[in-house]
Predict the structure.
Amino acid sequence: MPHVTVEYTDNIRAEADIKGLLKKIVDTVLGPDGAGAFPIGGVKARAYAVTDYVVADGSDGEAAFVHIVVRIAKGRPLEVRQRAFDAVFDQVKAHLQHIYDSRAFAISMDVEEFGERMAYKHNNLHAKFKGA
């Protein structure tokens, strides 16, 4: 954990460097702000361009958004979560500042802890990256 999902309006695809954004998010989570709370093999980040959307009242065809959902396992202290994800949100805002400055644009992020549920996992990522 965490699992990061980035949704973004396709009208910013050319200027947003979404792959670079994902890398910055992962680096920040694994860096000092994450304080070692997130194992490297558990971090997964993905992005989806949204092609069907309406922003605000729909009158501004250039308006855009990026929405990020982060899901983490329970058990990390609030201070660790806040430090890690305050740093992530700062990185996201800095990465997208040029878009924010040029059009109507919304950036949002939700951090959720997995609740009571059933979860199925099958991977070898922890073993592969152990000690990385």
